[in-house]
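Inputs:
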Amino acid sequence: MKFFVLATYLSSLLFYLFHLFFNRKFFLIAGFAFLCAGFSIHTSGFIMEINSPESFPAYHMGGVMSFFSILLGCVFIAYQIKGLVPVLGYITVPAILFFYIFSISLPRSGVFPPELRTVLFPIHVTFSMAGYAFFFLSFATGGIYLLQERHIKFKVFKWSFKRIPSLVELDFMNYRTVQLGFTFITLGMLSGSIWSQRAWGSIWNWDPKEVLTLIVWMVYAAYLHLRLILGWKGRKTAILSVIGFILVLIAFFGRKLVPGGYHDYI
Amino acid sequence: MTTFEEENLLVHGTSFRTSPLEVREALALKKSEDEKLLHKIRTSLYVEECVILSTCNRFEFIIYRNHPEEIIDGIIKINEERAGFPLQKTHFYNFFGRDAIRHIFRVTSSLDSMVLGEPQITGQVKSAYESSLKLGFIGKNLRKVFERAFFVAKRIRNETAIGENPNSVGSQAVELAESIFGDLSKRKAIVIGTGEMGEIAIKSFLSRGISKLYITSRSIERAEELCSLYSGEALPFKDLYRGLEEVDIVLCSSAAPHYIITKTDIKNVMKKRRGSPLFLIDISLPRNIDPEAGKVDNVYLYHIDDLQQIVDKNIKKRKEEAIKSERIVEEEVEKFLQRMKEEKIGPVIARVYKTADSIRRKELEELFKMLGNISEHQKKAIEDFSVNVVRKILHKPATRAKEWARDGDFYLAEAFFALFGEDDEVEGRNEGK
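Outputs:
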């Protein structure tokens, strides 16, 4: 199973790279088809691991990474249905592959922790991870926006200029993905606090992960606020979305440096 | 003639390279004149296959006929009648055979265009060909040439970047606007001033179907005149800043000796626009938009010099691509001629195979009669064996004959037919058995 997923994701990446270098439509379609195939096998494998409704496989770092890779694939594929945006694939497909390899390289802990045996666990994880997946896409579109803006503003036209969608489209995608990401991460935090209230009697515990996520949440709240109230658009918001995702990564992996808290499984 | 003979192909014509505009203007086809002219050429010069290509840059007859060199004087006479004045022979060119094929391929692929790589010419050749086809002036010879020419044009467009980078200031401005806004059909533009360069850019933007065009000028009459020409809306000059808040693209080509739009203006406008991107194109000399205005967030300012620089680079790139394209044309001319030669020998080879096959069948029948009761399986094995023997014996001579034909050695190719083709003696001996 692992081999098939890896092989299809790798082929997808290969075709996207071919498209990057040779710019033939066939490579793009093949790359996307392989991605969809990899995504389907990967997702069905993940679902098969669920033995009972309450044993969601994302209870260890490997499972979480695998799940994130699935959600990223899901969100990316959904965004490509209207029309393939190759340049977004150049960034997202390697990320999907990276998180998948990361997930299979980590040791699996065999026992499902009994304290996670609640329906709130998959809800909390799915909302949070979906939020992160959207934030990844906003990071990607923001980065591409900054590259294209550089081309146009400073009149330096690299080969990449013609391969990138227009600034207005990128800006809109950036905004939409932040909106969705923000909605999901808010739902993730809410479901987390309900769970916390039930299990430990308080909705907020100053757990390191909670604090870091709150910072991420505030950055994206600021993004939406500045956009709606002050009319920030384009470059500034693109930079914010890039910073936002870097903070997401710090919040996710950096908290390992601060042991303890309720999120010790990952 | 049953097969294509390259020496029967003639291109007689004139283009911007060889003649002044007046000559081309006098010759250019008027509306639905092609039918009359084609019939005239057919009746007076005995031409069965002909295409007339008439664009603003060229006027050409492409003719397929026996001994086409004999009718050149006749064509000149017809042309002179149409033009109404004597024509100079030096303004015209004649291409025959291989050169004619190369010329047709080059013209169709836009390698002989005034603006290298411009895409319209392929369509113009196509419609000239189609109107000849509809009127019954296309036989299988010109059909082969033109179908190949369209294929070559497509190949060049796919394999080289000859048509990719804009080659005029107007189309470059449009490409930049599209890289900012995407689809321009919902975008609005304003034109400040009524300079001539501005008009060129207006046309480029209108061709992309922008939704609204404001024109403003200190002289309202001139603005209104342009408005009626381009179905725009005149805007009083004092309302310029209101206009800037509403539109997405600004084309400035006024003759004012100072800045009309300053950085502060743009800053204020951008606040009102809530950051919506603004594309400023300054086509005026001296500048009418403060270069500093381009530093404001989400504002993109291009001066005509910037655009010209990009266009110059693009044209250089196109010239590089043209070298690649010429190579493709050369390759395709060669391939086309070879294929035509192979086509000549094709029917001969087919007949040889047919004769051999009929011999095989007859012999097989005799054999089966002689052998009497044999199983289906054995019959099948013997039949396969006979097919293989015939095919293998003929394979090498047929391949050779094709090669000879390709190299123009038709005597040898005919020798192949004499050796292996249907022959009374062969038939007779067969009958006798």
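Remarks. Chain A has two domains: 1-53+61-107, 116-266. The longest helix of chain A spans residues 120-154.
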